[in-house]
Amino acid sequence: MTAEPQISQTRLWLGGSVIVVGFLSPLLIPLVASTNLSLGLKSALSGLLALGIPEVFMIIGVAILGKVGYQFLKDKLFGLLKQYAPPDEVGLTRYRVGLVMLCTPLFFAWAHPFVSQLIPSLKTLPIWCYVVGDVTLVSSFFVLGGNFWDKLRGLFKHNARSINSSA
User: CA within 20 to 30 Å of 104's CA: 42, 61, 129, 160, which one?
Assistant: First the structure.
């Protein structure tokens, strides 16, 4: 029987902090944009904050954590997120509510350009209307449950077949 390797608390906190700081670095882009630096330097720094620094910090954080520490941190994070994952099976009412939540923002997004030609006041909707639609669309995937993700994935597979299990 082998004992589990010890994880240094210092390395765990330091490595985790480096990873978190790296992922939060894109939040500094507005600060860079508001400086008096040249446009080229602002663009370069903004690009690095968005696409270079998070990855570099992640590599540094994993190096600090080591294999055992990284695995421990990953298991804890995914264990925490798993409790918020949608259940695989949902009831008929919940499934129907989820379908309405999915289709309603899609329908309004499709119809908006046409209807706003007939009703000009719809051309200047406040931003919160769009945010509510986006949140409703994303929330619908959690209401619909895990099996819906498999159905959705099947749309993008050429050889996918539907199996009618309720027959």
Answer: 160
Calculate what percentage of the chain has a pLDDT beyond 90. Answer: 34
CA Rg, the chain, in Å? 23
User: Cβ(85)–Cβ(146) under 8 Å?
Assistant: yes
Six token digits for residue 166: 């309720």
Q: Which of the four pLDDT bands, split at 50, 70 and 90, describes residue 24?
A: very high
Alpha helices in the chain (DSSP H): 9-24, 29-33, 39-47, 53-82, 92-118, 127-144, 146-154
Question: Could you tell me which residues come within 8 angstroms of residue 86 by beta carbon, excluding any fewer than 6 positions away?
Answer: 141, 142, 143, 144, 145, 146
Does the structure show a pLDDT above 90 at 141? no
Query: What is the pTM assigned to this prediction?
Result: 0.55
Q: What is the mean pLDDT of residues 42-47?
A: 91
CB atoms within 10 A of CB 64: 20
End-to-end CA distance of the chain: 50
Query: What count of other Cβ atoms lies within 10 Å of the Cβ of residue 38?
Result: 9
